[in-house]
Sequence to fold (893 residues):
Amino acid sequence: MHRRPLIIKAVLATTALLVSAIVGTNASLAADSAPLAPYDAKKAGGTVTLVAQAAAGTLDPKVNYTAQFWQLYQASYDGLLTFSYGTGATTFNVVPDLAEALPAVSNGGKTFTFKLRKGIKFSDGKPVTVADVKASFERIFKVSSPTAGSFYNGIVGADVCLKTPATCKLDKGVVVDAATNTVVINIIAPDDAILSKLAVPHAVINPASAPSKDAGTTIIPTTGAYMYKSYDPNKSLVMVRNPYFKEWNHNAQPQGYPDQIIFKFGITPTAQVTAVENNQANWAFDPIPADRLNEIGTKYASQVHINPLTAMWYLPMNVNLAPFNNVKARQAVNYAIDRANMVKIFGGTQLAAPVCSFLPPNFPGHVDYCGYTKGATPAKPAKAWAGPDLELAKKLVKESGTAGQAVGIVVSDDDVNKQMGVYLQSVLNSIGYKATVKPISGNIQFTYIQNTKNKVQISVTQWYQDYPAASDFLDVLLGCASFTPKSDSSINMAGYCNKALDVKMAKAKALGATDPVAANKMWGEIDQEVMADAPVAVAFTPKQLDFISSGTKNYLFSLQYKMFVSQLIVK
Amino acid sequence: MLAFVTRRISAMIFVLVSISILVFLIFFATPGVDPAARIAGRNADQETLAQVRHSFELDKPLPIRYLSMMRHLFVSQDLTSYVNRGAKVIPQLTQAIPATLSLVIGAAIIWLGLGIFFGIKAASSRRKWIDPTIGFLGIIGISLPVYWLGEVVNLFTQAKLHNSVFRWVPQLGYVGITDNPFQWFLHLLFPWLTLAVLYAGIYVRVLRNEIRMVMSEDYIKTERAKGASETRILYKHATRMSLITLVSLFGLDFGSLVGGYALLTEVVFGIQGVGRLTYQSLQNFDLPVIMATVMYASFFVVFMNALVDVLYAVLDPRVRRV
Fold:
């Protein structure tokens, strides 16, 4: 998932100031992995108020593709499966939700049999039936869900649904039997990430009567602890308890604490900080503005929580355009960038960590290595990034014969990204290029850099995981299938297509369905092979800073969906 | 007279149509602006992208797209946002108007009150120091940028002194007058004052200069010679004459503020008005909302101008022949 560009504003260079007093840093994941504590009914009640600069668009769980609303869907909508509540690595586990148990796998990893739980009702009082399950999968295609073609194209019959969504029927792909309450999902080829794909919000179960187009601001009944009472993208989103909810799996959809959750929109980031300080709001959505970081790091340190994100900031380099059609030029950039400096621009070591592997730390398949640091080569990588090697970079540029060429760096126009651009300009100039920075609006930069018509040579962008599987980074961002020339939707911005690696990625995906450990080892190798080719330069992995009010307790962080909103205690 | 009004109205329609075409063309001429991929979502498959493009009529030629957008905006009134899918544009606008009106009317009362009171004082006071002092304060009022002043006001009322002097100041935002009149007043008090400071400064200066000018007219001298009292001259003649200038200035200021010019005040104080809606839609490249807010704002400005022209024609027959 790419994070909504608007929100990557404001965290600024000065944050060496973000004083070390800040607590709550979860450095190691394995150490504090734990299931969710039992529910304490005495602490229930009250209203949780969240504040943000802007709403996140449609409320339809099958269409919305933002971290902002996915965080809320976890407490309201349910799929057959979901990601577990809890802390640390537990939150990456897929657990049965509306299904009674994890599916029985047969037919060589192509058939998944679920049994739907009985007695669960939607928030409008109607029971959840297998017919709703089938309709929900068809609805993914009918509403042109953004991931219809990328996550769910493997379901039998999906190819026809993608072409003619209006008449989508998945009679062979999702076979249901009302008598036994079973759901059988058939896919055309084994898929290592299928369980994760069935656990994300786009696969949640809606009533069969839900509109067959994007519901927009109309509310679709939920199954979870909360339902939506009203939504106005210019004012607020109000969630209240679902009167028909009874807990069925504490780890999948636990009872929530607040009686009401209000998400207010239209509050500037600095006003959000003030509102949290004054206990007028419980949590600020947008990144804390740089000039407020010192204040919250000192006066409000106990209310700050910092957690690692499985995400990266990186520089795609267009392998089909000079000078980066030359591998040495791309490697030179990898050697030349001072990742520590980019971390500093982003907000300091409390908010990010330099990396040069493609898969972020704590992510399946990640190996600690860096081929582009002083004294290392892609063939003989070091354990971690230590510092840039400008001399080697200059030498590589010279050898590539691209010295003196003009390079345009396309960045978003917010403070942080512009500073990154200016910094990169100085680096590229120092290794022999003539670089210019081209800042464009953060709202269009992400699609602009994807379209080959715009002839972007190098850019700065981010990728945040959709689900914990190596394929969500490597295959999605660098697979041949993700490159479509002349399209705004061509997420492989480098335009990198390596047929041999594509075959290997397909193998790793197939292996993952049966032997995830071996598959992740393979992904680790693929990571190193890709980076030897250097279609991108990875800069750093960001961390999530959450600022909550003094009256807010029970802050829990999910690696998948960030803070658990329904578990906040305000009473 | 009828011919004049007809001519004026058709000119008004022509201006509005031209503005809408211009906004539309500028939007689609911006590089990388094609909303289809942003609507479709990250990494959408090409077929999904094509379907989204089709459902938003983005695959049609520009003139058809323009006509269709105008039809949805004015005829069926069901134009929906590109960013907040499913959110209808017209209700967003009609909900934003009361907030803007509350802000602008309240501020206008304050600035007219301050402007007229101090304007007369400055023009008429016999004490030497009063005129330059009021003039100086007026300049300060004009020079304070509203976004800066607003943030400073917030800094004191919401942060620094929020736990002492300004404990009673509610959180930023807007509460409808029908929901809770007292909260409506509390929420808007500081936005009113902030917005009024700038205009009060301008009005004080304008009124003072006008009164001074009128005071030196021949008919005032005649009045004095006839033995009228200074108070009568000041209020009955000088101020009354000067207010005509002030009223036409006020008409234009009020029109543009209601049309969205109070944007900065609305953004700083988190008031969900027309200005903030415009700001948000410009940030998001949300053409349908941009189009609706621009049409609304330009309608106000053009309508006010036309109204003034027609009024002039009523007052002065020579204008009708132009």
Q: What stands out?
A: Chain A touches chain B through 62 residues (CB under 8 Å). The first helix of chain A runs from residue 67 to 73.
